[in-house]
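Field reference: "sequence" (input) and "structure" (output). Example, tRNA threonylcarbamoyladenosine biosynthesis protein TsaE:
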Amino acid sequence: MQYSFNLQLNSENDTQNLAQVLATHFNKGVVYLIGDLGAGKTTLTRYLLQSMGHQGSVKSPTYTLVEPYNISGKDIFHFDLYRLNDPYELELMGIRDYLETENALFLFEWPSKGGEEIPEAELIINIEKSEDELTRIVTLTSSSSELQQALESAFKHA
């Protein structure tokens, strides 16, 4: 069964709160981050990694395609496929080696550019800018009732 949760992020604190819920309830598997340029995909990723215990900076892997992290023994791979010209480039860069990492978290920005080279998402986060571009409208879709309940509890006002 698919669960979908919509919320509005009005501030950095809202984004941090969402990241904390995700870090607690979804810390392995495949996540798609969907949204236009500047929607906040990398910002949410930064707060997620910080919520998981990362101390350093978090940069967008726009040019490197992937930025690996190891936080408290947990492998996390942040992919940004924006500059990808052909999904086959992922095969050439050795994506299979990354994907074979057990119990890892895989974050994919611009997943539509990955074609069949990337696995299906277990969590899809769609971020849209509001008309005034001050708030973000976020839709989270997953098959996790636990995550759904945690989101409902954390964002009762949404």
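Residues 8 and 137 are 5 Å apart (CA to CA).
Helices lie at 12-25, 41-51, 88-92, 95-99, 145-154.
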